[in-house]
Design a protein that fits this description.
The complex is a heterodimer of chains A (about 1100) and B (about 475). Chain A is about 10% helix and about 45% strand. Chain A has about 1100 residues and is mostly beta strands. The chains are: A mainly beta (about 1100), B mainly alpha (about 475). Chains A and B meet through strand 30, strand 31, strand 35 and strand 36 of A and helix 1, strand 1, helix 2, helix 3 and helix 6 of B.
């Protein structure tokens, strides 16, 4: 970057040289459509100079617009460019000559592949574009200059290091090679799906872009949302160990209040936009509770990570406001790969791997379980013989987890063909993935196809089409939590070898063998776009896209085991059909004025419509277990549901820059949605952003340490409309069934009326600095302050209202923090080089105020599900964990003790008698600081990538269901930590006296853990076959890699020896470590 | 250029206006509260919903019927795991996750639904005044029933304090918006007055009304007799013997309801809308979930270990004579479970899809109410007469009682209530309102007996509501 600015300054200097003497003279000229003669005269009148020219050589009658204010040298400079003249100063006289013309041509090739690069811009140092390379990298153009021999050419291509040729001298042919630019300052950033992207240095908003390479798609991860973990500053992907389930992503902190008691809040998920088409979240049907039994698929599962060209995460207002009412949680833009013109390229990749458990929780053995259950029963008042009778076998020992899990295999194969010529490019890709989960009965098979064709019919007209069908088969007999925690003193088989039947709980082995849960889905997304350049400055484009989903889930609970025995077999078939379409029509106007003022205006109109049709068929009473069709069921019923919504939006963005130095961006979007209700509230959002490249200023232009410096700021609003239909009005649900055959409707429990409910607004401020040192170390730091007003959340209300929760505009919250990215390369020129990216995100969340005193009334309930203890209180974080302080086990009574608000040690009953307002903050669910350190080491043909992720300062509350102090001991197996229980007076124990029906204080600090950890998340070793060898094999490239995920953890909190700690209990479903081996071949 | 811009603008304008119609979408399965009460037809559907909501596991299709008999000693468990209400059975219900918590929230949900009908139906413009009155009359009576059940479950009996000033329940008499939802419990006396007022007003509205519901039987809907029967039950619990006598007497004398004969007795329980039923909750026609019957139905014994939980205790079985139609050999189904023989009452003989409606009010109760009220009023002959009607219907060979000591007579009536109304949700409430001690002999709970008065004769309020409602006081002991 420094080079360009520096050389630009140098060239200006050339002009300045010979007009030194008069350059200080000031003048002001304003002439429209004036002849050259008139211009000369005007200048002469206003200064001491005199023009000398040969009227045979120079056409004095030619007319120009000439507007200038400043010193004379600037005026001449301007005129030289406009009128293709050269000036030379001799005393007060200025000699005028027509500029010399010279035809130069050449080829620009890729340093790595040796092939011609199309689309490279070849410019003169005054910024004028001389030529753009053609499909084969060739260019030619006429240079008009004073001294063509001194002219230098500037070659630029997005993603490549710019090259400045040496002065032409006598040469007419200039051939150059370009190489990829590591610093990526010239990388094109996809700022939104409505425009074509902006060079990195011109971006004003806060956008993290992850390229295909950075995404490391070779990892055995089933969807790209999980892959994004740690790759972008300020983006926190909450780890999740279950296959194919939706992933939670927080961009710059949690965007809305933590849901209390389940139910509705606004969505905390970012908006995903794939090639311009927003991905619709799958919804439950609201027809009947029946549809709650359907398993939803991850909406982005249909996108093959291998097809992704880049992912842009829009974080601040100036970047995301163009997505208006859906952008409050940030927007994630996915751009898929396109074909490149040139020879046909084929890539094939294959990988295969195996996953094994790591950090598995240690559970009680059969005899231990028997002993503890017996003790608990006796402690609860049962006699020894009663307790023994209820405790089952004292000798049997079954490891249910081992019986229901396996080493899971992973296979993934991808192939793509791309190429193009004469304006037509295409890319066709196909992928097949087969991924097993460790839990038997769970696997995912996926076939993705994608075809993308772009065609430039003429200079004015272009069109493109993308079609991507995908097919998914998911088997999800996931009864993990029942399986693993089944009492271990039960036998899986009886003496005849049949599955043992247990009271009330199904034998998991029988379930796996006899039940069925299969999901077949077909998704089809496609879009077509047309661009028409009305004038070179003004383009009209239209895009129409559609997505179609057809999924069918079949679940069968067999009559042969307890799951389906009551109803003699139960079949559920869910058929889901979603058709969504979106169209937008926009105009784009780009114009450069006086070479300094660049203006780009985008305005468009978008219509969106989505319809989901659900159909469920239910059957029970199967006399023959193997034919699982509704027709075989004695009792059959059906249900259906339709949901539709539509949005109309108007959007606009204006970008202005002055000399590529000062930047201004404004965005606006208005949304009208059928979801907003009758009054059709128009959601209006706007933002403004400013940027200043300081390093282009004179005082920094020659600085060799600080080679690039830019300041950015933005301010604006986004909205969050995703709260569901008619949320404020109170709904009657017509699907509860019938009474005497007549339709019956009841108030919908999740939609309590609240006439005051309004929209949530998110006001975002972003301040950023980008700096590059020595052209080598790039550094980006951003400060943000997001104010979320009129937060919509579900608050717990007194049950006497007839509702447990209610949606309300509860208050104002702030997310404040910093995102930091440092990128560098060590020894770039050496054989062994090391690229390193360090990312750090800080976030502080604070609830600033509550409306209407909601805080005192509706702080929260102690969570009964045990996953977290949420209370939301003014002045604290929404993800704070609230509770009481544990004071250990009383050695005399074995009862747990707590610190009362006054600091006294009290028992369980007393601590419970204090109101929720006396709770203290125990920790925070989300990390204070999190990020990653991604390293790539290259040595000859080897590349080693190491991903290290870290998370500091988060707390974790145990799920009381299986871990805590024997709460549910009579029905399920538990952690070995229970062995350390109190047994007799005098015992100093960590676990209180075991009892049945024990009323645990679930929100005590006893169950709180420090989640601070560093994780060696991925290591990948890649070997590229040498070029010479590859060529002999008639290939373009061949590489093989070994990849390992989840290799190691360091936790600040250590697990006690032989017991479980945070490492083991963090995930309900144990983590797996996957080792894969793969190859990539390019032909 | 200018022309082009004009064309573009024109096209866009046309496009926008065409697209505006896209926004006309209606929710498909749900309609808003306002629209529900815009016309009579929809309001009727809302009332149908209120009836349906009575049929829930947490209410009359389950816990409301099970709890007083489990806690009182009529039922024990035939299973050892996944058993319903064992916290209540152990008298260890905890406010956080007591199984009866769901009953509390269900009852307030129903109140909300009823209050919508009561509040909004009078403003509907179509329908006739008489039909509108009928909807409001039925909803008001149900509101009284729900309030009364809340009182039984969550508040000590009327006579717990001399002036019934102890805490009752939070009363819901109109749709509650968030800013009004923090309210305190009213005193029991106030609660009883409210319940009685609702029932009386309901009766008055019935005077000027015409039937709305025609599907099923009239017994499936609230009618003036069921209101009176409810009044008799409420006054009995209040100890207003005059009124209890009056209303029980009116229902009996109406002649609309007839006691089952001895021969009919067992089979009648498997039938819908029988002669004894005053108010019976109908089972939805496509119902397939677990029902009250599932806890007793031996037909599913082998296939479903979770059903068939509620076995009769030896305590209750021992009360019946050899010749009583209600004894273990006639009125109980026997089933061997893990080597032990258990008896299951045939009051709810079938579960799931084939379940029979739930008899919420039946005429036998009226005879026993009249007998008890008559005793208190000194009319021992009427009391003995009614008592013998019930005793001898079940056991024709039983010797007629002719008791003249008030306490003996009361005790005999209570015994007969236990024998006749078992598994219908009375026992624990009869024990506490009569200030008796609870004794369970055939019992597997850690503590089987409790002296009167006991904090544990009422359930805890759910912690979820106590925590967010600063005006709400938890029941002592929890």
């Amino acid at each position: 970057m420094r080079n360009r600015a520096y050389q630009f300054a140098q060239v200006l200097g050339l002009y300045f040289l010979f007009i030194q003497a008069v350059h200080a003279q000031q003048l002001s000229v304003k002439l429209n459509k004036a002849t050259l003669f008139e211009i000369f005269t005007a200048i002469e009148e206003k200064s001491s100079v005199q023009f000398n020219y040969d009227s045979g050589e120079i056409n004095l009658r030619k007319r120009y617009d000439f507007v200038y204010k400043g010193n004379i040298s600037g005026a001449l400079n301007d005129l030289a460019n406009t009128a293709e003249l050269t000036f030379r100063l001799e005393g007060n006289r200025i000699l005028v000559r027509a500029a010399a013309r010279r035809l130069v041509s050449g080829v620009v090739t890729d340093k790595e592949s040796g092939e011609g690069i199309p689309g490279v811009s070849v410019r003169l140092l005054n910024g004028k574009v001389l030529a753009i390379t053609d499909l084969y990298g060739k260019f030619s153009g006429v240079i008009t200059a004073n001294e063509p021999g001194r002219t230098q050419l500037d070659f630029r291509m997005i993603g490549m290091k710019p090259v400045l040729s040496s002065p032409l001298g006598d040469r007419n042919v200039i051939n150059v090679t370009l190489e990829p630019d590591f610093q990526q300052m010239d990388e094109v950033v996809v700022t939104n799906a409505y425009s074509n992207g902006t060079p990195r240095e011109e971006v004003v908003g806060s956008i993290s872009q992850i390229t295909a390479k950075q995404l490391q798609v070779n990892r055995p991860i089933e969807s790209f949302d999980k892959m994004m973990e740690g790759l972008a500053a300020g983006v926190y992907v909450e780890p999740n160990t279950q296959l194919g389930t939706p992933v939670k992503i927080n961009i710059r902190g949690q965007g809305t209040l933590t849901a209390i008691g389940g139910g509705r809040t606004t969505s905390t998920q970012p908006l995903f936009v794939v090639d311009g088409i927003p991905v619709q979240e799958q919804n439950r049907g609201d027809a009947t509770g029946i549809f709650n039994n359907e398993t939803l698929l991850n909406p982005i599962a249909g996108i093959n990570p291998q097809d992704i060209a880049s992912i842009s995460v829009l974080k601040d207002a100036s970047a995301s406001t163009i997505y208006g009412a859906n952008a409050a949680n940030g927007v994630i833009i996915i751009t898929t790969k396109s074909g490149q013109a040139g020879k046909t390229a084929t890539n094939i990749s294959y990988s295969s791997g195996v996953s094994t458990f790591t950090n598995r929780m240690k559970l009680l053995t059969g005899p231990q379980y028997y002993e503890l259950k017996r003790e608990a029963l006796m402690n609860s008042g049962f006699t020894e013989s009663q307790a023994e009778a209820q405790s089952g076998s004292s000798t049997k020992n079954t490891d249910w987890l081992a019986l229901t899990n396996r080493n899971a295999r992973y296979n993934n194969i991808n192939a793509d063909v791309s190429g193009g010529k004469d304006g037509l490019t295409y890319r066709f890709s196909s992928g097949y993935r087969n991924q097993q989960a460790s839990s038997i009965g769970n696997n995912l098979q996926q076939i993705n196809l994608s075809l993308k064709v772009n065609n430039a019919i003429s200079k004015k007209l272009k069109f493109g089409i993308t079609l991507s069908p995908s097919m998914l088969i998911k088997n999800g007999l996931d009864n993990y939590s029942n399986n693993a925690y089944l009492p271990p003193n039960l036998d899986p088989y009886d003496s005849d070898g049949n599955y043992t039947q247990f009271l009330g709980i199904a034998n998991p082995l029988a379930v796996l063998a006899q039940n069925e849960d299969r999901n077949n889905a077909l998704t089809f997304t496609g879009n077509a776009n047309l661009h028409y350049a009305v004038t070179p400055d003004f383009t009209i484009s239209g895009t129409i896209g559609a997505n179609y989903l057809q999924s069918r889930q079949v679940t069968y609970l067999s009559a042969k085991n307890a799951t389906g025995a009551t109803l003699n077999g139960r079949l559920r078939i869910f058929d889901r059909q979603t058709l969504g379409w979106l169209g937008y029509l926009q105009g784009n106007y780009t114009k450069t004025f006086s070479e300094k003022h660049q203006l780009n205006i985008l305005a468009g109109y978008e219509a969106q419509d989505q319809k989901t049709v659900l159909l469920a068929g239910l059957g029970s009473g199967f006399s023959y277990d193997r034919i699982r069709e509704l027709s075989q069921a004695a009792n059959q019923s059906t249900s259906s549901s339709t949901q539709e919504d539509a949005t109309l939006s108007y959007y606009g963005q204006a970008n202005y820059d002055f000399e590529k130095k000062y930047f201004l961006t404004t965005s606006l979007r208005a949304d009208q949605s059928s979801l907003f209700g009758d009054d059709r509230n128009l959601a209006l959002n706007s933002a403004v952003g400013l940027g200043w490249i300081i390093s282009k200023e004179k005082f920094l232009a020659k600085n060799k340490t600080l080679t690039f410096l830019k300041l950015r700021s933005s301010y604006g609003t986004t909205g969050n409309s995703r709260i569901g239909t008619y949320a404020s009005r109170g709904l009657y649900n017509f699907s509860y069934g019938n009474y005497n055959g007549e339709v019956a409707a009841n108030p919908d429990g999740t939609s309590a009326p609240n006439p005051d409910l309004g929209w949530e607004k998110n006001v975002k401020l972003n301040l950023g600095i980008d700096a590059t040192f020595f052209d080598k170390i790039s550094f980006t730091a951003e400060y943000y302050n997001n104010l979320i007003k009129d937060l919509i959340s579900n608050i717990a209300v007194p049950i006497e209202s007839g509702f447990g929760t209610l949606s309300a505009n509860t208050g104002t919250m702030r997310n404040q923090g910093m995102d930091l990215t440092v990128q560098t390369i060590f020894f770039p020129e050496k054989t062994l080089n090391w690229r390193s990216t360090f990312i750090m995100g800080f976030n502080r969340n604070k609830i600033l105020k509550y409306n209407n005193g909601y805080t005192s009334l509706f702080s929260s309930t102690e969570s009964t599900t045990g996953e977290l203890n949420a209370a939301t209180r003014e002045g604290y974080s929404t993800s704070a964990i609230w509770g009481v302080k544990w004071a250990g086990v009383n050695p005399e009574t074995g009862q747990e003790q707590f610190y009362s608000p006054t600091g006294a040690i009290v028992n369980r009953t007393t601590i419970r008698s204090y109101p929720a307002t006396s709770w203290i903050q125990l920790g925070d669910r989300l990390p204070k600081t999190q990020g990653s350190w991604i390293n790539t080491l290259n040595y000859k043909n080897f590349a080693l990538t190491v991903n290290i992720l870290y998370s500091l300062g988060a707390s974790f509350m145990e799920s009381t269901r299986y871990f805590s102090d024997g709460l549910n001991l009579q029905n399920s197996n538990m952690s070995v930590n229970l062995l350390d229980r109190w047994q007799k007076p005098g015992d100093v124990a960590s676990v209180s006296k075991l009892e049945i029906e024990k009323g645990l204080v679930k929100n005590s600090s006893r169950y709180l853990h420090d989640l601070t950890n560093i994780k060696l998340s991925n290591v990948s070793l890649n070997y590229q076959l040498p070029k010479s060898l590859v060529q002999k094999l008639k290939m373009k490239q061949f590489s093989a890699y070994l990849n390992a995920t989840n290799l190691a953890y360091w936790y600040k909190e250590k697990s006690p020896a032989g017991r479980n700690g945070i490492r083991e209990i963090r995930f309900l479903y144990p983590e797996t470590r996957t080792i894969t081996l793969g190859i990539n071949i390019g032909i | 250029m200018k022309n082009l811009i004009h064309y573009i603008l024109l096209t866009l304008t046309l496009l926008f206006s065409a697209c505006q119609s896209l926004l006309d979408k209606e929710p498909q399965n749900k309609i808003s509260l306002e629209e529900t009460f815009q016309d009579f037809e929809s309001a009727k559907v809302a009332m149908t919903g209120a009836y349906l909501s009575l049929f829930q596991t947490s209410y009359l299709n389950g816990y409301r019927m099970l709890y007083p008999d489990l806690a009182g000693g009529n039922i024990k468990y035939a299973q050892t795991s996944n058993i319903a209400l064992n916290d209540a059975y152990f008298f260890q219900a905890n406010p956080d996750e007591g199984q009866m918590n769901s009953t509390y929230s269900t009852l307030y949900e129903i109140l909300n639904s009823l209050n919508n009908v009561i509040t909004y139906v009078p403003n509907i413009t179509n329908g006739t005044e008489k039909t509108r009155n009928r909807l409001v009359a039925e909803a008001t009576a149900l509101r009284a029933m729900v309030h009364f059940d809340l009182l039984l479950l969550y508040a000590q009996p009327f006579n717990f304090t001399t002036d019934a000033s102890h805490p009752g329940i939070v009363l819901n008499l109109k749709p509650v918006l968030i800013n009004e939802s923090v309210r305190a419990r009213s005193a029991v006396a106030v609660c009883y007055d409210t319940v009685i007022k609702d029932l009386t007003e309901s009766l008055a509205l019935f005077e000027n009304s015409s039937a709305v519901f025609s599907a099923g039987s009239t017994k499936n809907y609230i009618n003036p007799s069921s209101v009176k029967a409810l009044l008799a039950r409420v006054y009995l619990n209040k100890g207003d013997w005059q009124q209890a006598y009056h209303y029980a007497d009116e229902v009996i004398k109406s002649g609309s309801y007839k006691l089952y004969s001895n021969a009919e007795y067992v089979n009648a329980w498997a039938q819908k809308n029988t002669s004894e039923a005053i108010f019976e909750i109908s089972v939805p026609s496509n119902f397939s979930g677990g029902s009250l019957g599932s806890y007793y139905d031996i037909a599913t014994a082998n296939s479903s270990p979770t059903s068939l939980q509620m076995a009769a205790t030896n305590d209750i079985l021992a009360l019946y004579s050899e010749t009583d139609i209600r004894n273990s050999s006639r009125f109980y189904a026997s089933q061997m479970i893990r080597g032990t023989n258990y008896q299951f009452c045939k009051k709810y003989p079938t579960g799931a899809a084939s379940a029979t409606g739930i008899k919420v009010l039946r005429i036998s109760e009226m005879y026993l109410i009249r007998a008890e009220a008559a005793t208190e009023l000194g009319n021992f002959s009427q009391a003995n007469l009614d008592l013998n009607t019930i005793i001898q219907r079940a056991d024709p060979k039983a010797v007629a009682e002719n008791l003249s000591d008030k306490q003996t007579l009361i005790n005999r009536i209570l015994l007969e209530r236990r024998k006749e109304l078992n598994n219908e949700g009375f026992l624990l409430f009869d024990i506490s309102r009569r200030k008796q001690d609870l004794t369970r002999n055939d019992c597997t709970a850690p503590t089987c007996s409790f002296k009167y008065p006991s904090n544990y004769f009422v359930l805890p309020l759910p912690a979820a509501t106590v925590l967010v409602n600063p005006l709400l006081s938890q029941n002592p002991g929890y």
